[in-house]
Specification:
- By secondary structure, this protein is α/β, with parallel strands linked by helices.
- The chain has one domain (25-245): Decaprenyl diphosphate synthase-like (Undecaprenyl pyrophosphate synthetase), CATH 3.40.1180.10.
- The protein is built from nine helices and six strands, in the order αβααβαβαβαααββα.
- It has a six-stranded parallel β-sheet, with helices on both faces.
- Helix 1 (4-18) runs parallel beside helix 9 (234-246) and helix 2 (35-41) packs across helix 3.
- The protein starts with a helix and ends in a 7-residue tail after the last helix.
- It comes from Streptomonospora alba.
- InterPro entries: UPP_synth-like, UPP_synth-like_CS, UPP_synth-like_sf.
- Catalyzes the condensation of isopentenyl diphosphate (IPP) with allylic pyrophosphates generating different type of terpenoids.
- This is Isoprenyl transferase.
- One of its GO terms (cellular component) is plasma membrane.
Length: 253
């Protein structure tokens, strides 16, 4: 074992101990950014290798979250904009996503698909729907898998779902407009029934949300991490939790 290993371990233990005085977020959202750039600087032959490494990292993160008592994790794996990529780039990525969701199902996580599944290839949509059906009764950590996801699209889908549901009850537009409130829309989001995210993490140094959970992030704390996603370590996660816990959350101001 080299000199850095015990120092890293000691620093990790120190961070873990410091969390004892802080509140733990119930819901953590993560924008898994930097897979391709990590592959390039690592000298790997293709972006696909970076995406595969990033997929493996997901299971480390879920273990850390489960260990400290996080209730919900939302993973943004593929945006609606990403669906316009060239076929030779998109197809390997979708296969990696399918493999990741299959493994989530096999390991017993409660898998909840998020996104416009109708825009996905049939095989990808089927894997996500089957994982949800097979794991929805599982206890423990809920894992929202955002594939074909866009924040604006989610809000539009929620409003559309609300209108259809109210029309089925015979509610007129005038009646709906009179009593419509925020809760009505929230009940039709992909995350309905879940707490809104307390902490949103984005890796790779980019400091924007890019439309991630636009509705739900109104009161969330943001943490931007310089490291590329495949290189994200437990100490990086613990630093995010420490930063979150040290903030004075003033809701609505």
């Amino acid at each position: 074992m080299g000199l850095r290993d015990p120092l890293y371990w000691l620093y990790e233990r120190r961070l873990e101990r410091s969390l004892g005085t802080f509140e733990i977020p119930r819901h953590v959202g993560v924008i898994l950014d930097g897979n391709r750039r990590w592959a390039r600087i690592s000298g790997l032959a293709s972006a696909e290798a970076g995406h595969q490494a990033g997929a493996e990292k997901i299971f480390d993160l879920l273990g850390w979250c489960d260990e400290i008592g996080v209730q919900v994790v939302t993973l943004w794996l593929l945006s609606t904009d990403n669906l316009t990529r060239k076929r030779e780039e998109l197809e390997p990525l979708l296969k990696i996503i399918e493999g990741t969701v299959t493994r989530l199902r096999r390991e017993g996580w409660n898998v909840n698909p998020m996104g416009a599944l109708d825009l996905l290839p049939d095989s990808t949509a089927r894997v996500m729907k089957e994982a949800h059906a097979a794991t929805s009764g599982n206890s423990g950590l809920i894992v929202n898998v955002a594939v074909g996801y866009g924040g604006r699209r989610e809000i539009a889908d929620a409003v559309r779902s609300l209108l259809v549901a109210e029309a089925a009850k015979g509610t007129s537009l005038e009646e709906l407009a009179e009593r419509l409130d925020l809760d009505h829309i929230a009940e039709h989001l992909y995350t309905r029934g879940q707490p809104d995210p307390d902490l949103l993490i984005r890796t790779s140094g980019e400091q924007r949300l890019s439309g991630f959970m636009l509705w739900q992030s109104a009161q969330a704390e943001f943490y931007f991490c310089e490291v590329f996603w495949p290189a994200f370590r437990k100490v990086d996660f613990l630093r995010a939790l420490r930063a979150y816990g040290a903030r004075n959350r003033r809701f609505g101001s």
